[in-house]
Amino acid sequence: MNLTQLLEIDRAVLAWFNGSNSLFIDALAQNLTSGFTWIPLYLALVFVIIKNNDTMPQIFLAIGCAVLAVVVVSVSVELIIKPLFARLRPSQDPLIKHTIAVVNGMRGSQYSFFSAHAANTFSLAVYLSLLIKSRSLSVMLVSWSAINCWTRLYLGLHYPSDIFFGLLWGALVGWLAYAVYRRFGKPLGLPRTQQTSQTTATSYLQADIAKLLYIMALWIGVVIIYSIFNT
């Protein structure tokens, strides 16, 4: 299989995901793809980290490594990788942009390879899954990243290959962020390994994880209702 055939497959898969005849799904995808939509999730995660660490150095390290992952992804993708490959977004490519379903004129910036949304969300999903070690939280975070990836395809802002390589880069950066956490956490007694019926393998309270999952489900419900009333 040559490059031309791979690109044709890429476009065919994108065509399957891109757009619909539903104004509600249009609004939902546009709302879900916005970073501002997920501020309550970020705040809830910060609260859980603060509540489950004993000292300010522990808190700063846990949150700082999450910020580090986002910064590394954002800088590497936006300033190095996208300009280097210079692959036009589907919604910007003059050869196919008129076949792409665009929602409310949303065409994004010029380049698409690879997806910063996919890389950022998955780097956080990987890092926080390793940090907290809760299966239910990991499923939620991976699902959250998958939702973001779906919105980029639905809105015609990325090809499937952009998403795939973004996820790979995000996984690597998330793992490296956790490696930094382990390296600098040793003098701080981190990561903790005492597990009970009420805590995860890294001593995060299961009750706090349950509250976080509840907040996530409730907030998605709010976004869905908001999307219904804004179609």
Automatic annotation (TrEMBL):
Q: Which residues cross the membrane?
A: 32-50, 59-81, 111-130, 163-181, 212-229
Q: Please list the residue ranges annotated as the Phosphatidic acid phosphatase type 2/haloperoxidase domain.
A: 62-178
Kindly give the SUPFAM superfamilies that the UniProt entry links to this protein: Acid phosphatase/Vanadium-dependent haloperoxidase
Keywords on record: Membrane, Transmembrane, Transmembrane helix
Name the chain's protein.
Undecaprenyl-diphosphatase
Instruction: Give the species.
Output: Hoylesella shahii DSM 15611 = JCM 12083
**Upper classification of the organism:** Bacteria, Pseudomonadati, Bacteroidota, Bacteroidia, Bacteroidales
